[in-house]
Amino acid sequence: MTNTENLQNRWLLGSDAPPTLGDFPETWHDMLAELEPEQQSLTALGLMAHYQSLAECPSAPESLTPAPLLPALDLAMIDAAAPATYPLVTRLLAEDSDYVQLTLALLAERGLALPPRDYFVLVASRREVAKELSPEVATIYQPWQRHFATRQNEAEPDDNLAIDADNWADFMPAYRLYALETLRSRDPNACRELIAECVGQEPAETRVKILHVLYEQLSDADAPYLQTLLNDRSKKVVALARQLLLRIGHFGRDDAEDDAEADLELLAKGFEVNAKQSTLKKSLGKSTETVEVKAVLYREHKKRNKRRELLSQYGLPALAEALSISLPQLLNGWAYNKHRADDNRAFIEQASHLPDEFLPLMVEGLASYEFDYPDEILPIWRRLSDTQRQTLLLSYLHNAELDLRFAQLLAFGTRLADNDKLTWKRLQKTAAWRQLCKPNKYHQQTEHDCIALGLLLPQALATVALAYLQEHLDNEAIGRNDLAFYALRLNAELANHPIT
User: Fold this and answer.
1) DSSP code, position 88
2) Most confident of the following: 273-282, 400-409, 440-449
3) What is the pLDDT of residue 323?
4) Dmax over Cα atoms in the chain, in whole Å?
């Protein structure tokens, strides 16, 4: 060990005796010989620091590799394009996770997006909320998410990067999903074949995530592979395979299941079917038999749980077959307002896996559903078109029996469209508006409803509502500040910006 290393260890670990001249490097002796022992130690300490800075000075690399820049979005950043309303946005996002989806949707509607620092703080602080963003909003920020997925893989973003069986293990999980999604969009068959070859080596949770890629461009060509997954060792994989098969209209059961007949017989006993005559198409003079389907009112939790488990396992087409009715009859005849909320939620969850052709029947039934909580309907919400969502939103808003508050509509994550079906006069007649305007000592609820109203309404109505509420709403009802009006102000003041 050299003199300098000995000195360094001595000073780091400590010593009872001060160092002598012989403990220092010979090249230092001329400078230290004439000094007092205490001054020798202090001077040597300074020389040591200088010596280390020279000895450990790194050499410059031959060339620097710059990190790839964050890709630009198609939308303008709100902090630069609309600085006056930017503080309103940051406050709303920080105030409550319920406001995130519709605030970002409102910005996108006006051609604006969050700047990177705010978006990534939002994703980091509200991860679950960020995961639940609607596809329309999530797609806007997808270039940034892909950028960081590729950075985690220590490679520059490359849309042409090909994943195959040989390099499968070289991809980090997030980047692998991105690569598979890219491949699926370009060559669905090649993506399916690659997944079939490699996914078996992954754990069950990872297999489920990877198999979700098949929802993109799902077609009959995927059916043979999905059929093989019905024998997977993971129940979650089997359930996902069934859902994918239902989506493309493959309603057949797996005959390999020994208990299927007994299970379906038990499932059918959990429901009552009452037939009735109804003329559905009077203009054509056609009379079609409709039915009313109700779940048996089990008191035992065990029986109710078993019924939901079997319904989840076999799906609605199998239930309709077990009840000796058609699937459209089952969808038309489900008596939403005569069921427990958990039975309705289970039914809607299974209906969300049906092909698109059955969604209009679901919308027709759901329009009159007097639900307790909006989350009962959420499983099927993202499957619906914007027109179908607007139909349901307006039905619920105008349904006096529901007695909704505006804050409850936030759960749907959909803004009301600007059309003649929602006018200022009709808005004032809704139960939600009456709830908002009546005296309420709980100012937080009123504040919550005001913010929800501002995020839900189209711009013209938001402008009118803001002026009215500022004049007529009791100051005590909204607390000591005007946070209640932030969303209405944002909506009314935010101009449209061109999308590049």
Assistant:
1) H
2) 400-409
3) 94
4) 120
Secondary element (H or E) of residue 256: none
Helix (H) or strand (E) holding 429: none
pLDDT value at 159 more than 70 = no
Ramachandran class of 413: left when φ > 0, alpha when ψ lies in -120 to 50, beta otherwise: left
**Angle of CA points 472, 478, 479, to nearest 5°:** 135
Q: How far apart are CA 494 and CA 315, in angstroms?
A: 46
In the block, which residue shows the tokens 């010593």?
15
Give, in degrees to the nearest 5, the angle at Cα 387 between 467 and 98: 55
Q: Which two tokens stand for residue 211?
A: 């198999």
Q: Helix 188-198 and helix 173-186: axis angle, to 10°?
A: 140
Mapped onto helix, strand or coil, the DSSP state of residue 76 is: strand
At 282, the pLDDT band (50, 70, 90 cuts) reads: very low
Name which of 406, 387, 374, 385 is nearest 99 in CA terms: 406
Q: Does the pLDDT value for residue 37 go beyond 70? A: yes
| 399 DSSP β-pair partners | none
Q: Give the single-character DSSP code of 10.
A: H
* Element containing residue 334 per DSSP (H, E): none
The SS3 assignment for 52 reads helix
pLDDT at 381: 94
Q: How far apart are CA 113 and CA 78, in angstroms?
A: 6
pLDDT, residue 56, reads 59
Give CA 194 to chain center in angstroms. Answer: 27
Phi first, then psi, for residue 354 (nearest 5°) are -80, 160
| Residue whose token pair is 């002598």 | 20
Strand partners, 295: 271
Residue the block writes with tokens 């489920």:
208
